[in-house]
């Protein structure tokens, strides 16, 4: 299963439209980890799973989504309700409760990926307002290619170019 994960677009609908057009038919699923600042019924979400972030005020957006794509279970939440600024423990526990192999989150605007107890925890960073060590890139998203056991993660910049130093492989 190959999926695109994006987060924290903060009203930048155009980048979401560009990503959908560029990757339609090339990835099996699109995930938006919240803070889109768009309404739940925006047509951009017709082909994209989305959760509510702390800057999303549409209560019809769910706080978390669990979706199985090609046999891989993905748990997604924004992160503010599970305290990702302090620890990833609550996120991991929720993902494991859902039997997810992949847990996606945003909120911190800082990209990161690590594997714990068989679950890959992935923050794609903010596509619009990055923070932290990789701010210079100017916004990121991630493509995850997985069979549920091994994971290949490649981060991309806003121009859809891969960031060479942000390519990761995780074995079972």
Structural descriptors:
172 residues; single chain; 5-stranded mixed sheet; 34% strand; 6-stranded mixed sheet; 11 strands
- SSE pattern, N- to C-terminal: EHEEEEHEEEEEE
- Give the biggest beta sheet: 6 strands, mixed
* Strand arrangement in the largest pleated sheet: 3-2-1-9-10-11
Report the portion of residues in β strands: 25-35%
Using the alpha-carbon principal axes, give the shape: globular
Q: DSSP helix count? A: 2
Give the averaged pLDDT, no decimals. Answer: 97
Alpha-carbon distance between the two ends: 16 Å
Helix content: 10-25%
Number of strands: 11
Please state the CA-atom Rg, rounded to the nearest Å.
14 Å
Structural class: mainly beta
Q: Any low-confidence stretches, pLDDT <50, length ≥5?
A: none
Give a short summary of the structure.
About 10% of the residues lie in helices and about 35% in strands.
List the helices and strands and how they pair.
Blueprint: E1 2-6, H1 13-23, E2 29-32, E3 49-50, E4 64-69, E5 72-77, H2 89-97, E6 102-104, E7 112-116, E8 119-123, E9 140-146, E10 151-157, E11 162-170
Parallel strand pairs: 1-2, 2-3, 5-6, 6-8
Antiparallel strand pairs: 1-9, 4-5, 7-8, 9-10, 10-11
């Amino acid at each position: 299963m190959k999926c695109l994960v994006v987060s924290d677009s903060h009203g930048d609908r155009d980048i979401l439209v560009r990503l959908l057009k560029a990757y339609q038919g090339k990835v099996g699923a699109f995930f938006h980890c919240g803070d889109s600042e768009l309404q739940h019924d925006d047509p951009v979400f017709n082909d994209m799973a989305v959760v509510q972030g702390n800057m999303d005020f549409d209560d019809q957006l769910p706080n978390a989504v669990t979706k199985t794509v090609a046999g891989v279970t993905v748990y997604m939440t924004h992160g503010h309700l599970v305290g990702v600024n302090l620890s990833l423990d609550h996120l991991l526990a929720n993902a494991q409760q859902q039997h997810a192999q992949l847990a996606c989150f945003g909120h911190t605007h800082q990209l990161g990926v690590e594997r714990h107890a068989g679950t890959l925890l992935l923050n794609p960073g903010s596509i619009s307002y990055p923070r932290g060590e990789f701010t210079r890139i100017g916004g990121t998203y991630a493509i995850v290619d997985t069979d549920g056991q091994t994971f290949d993660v490649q981060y991309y910049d806003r121009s859809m170019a891969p960031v060479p130093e942000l390519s990761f492989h995780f074995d079972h």
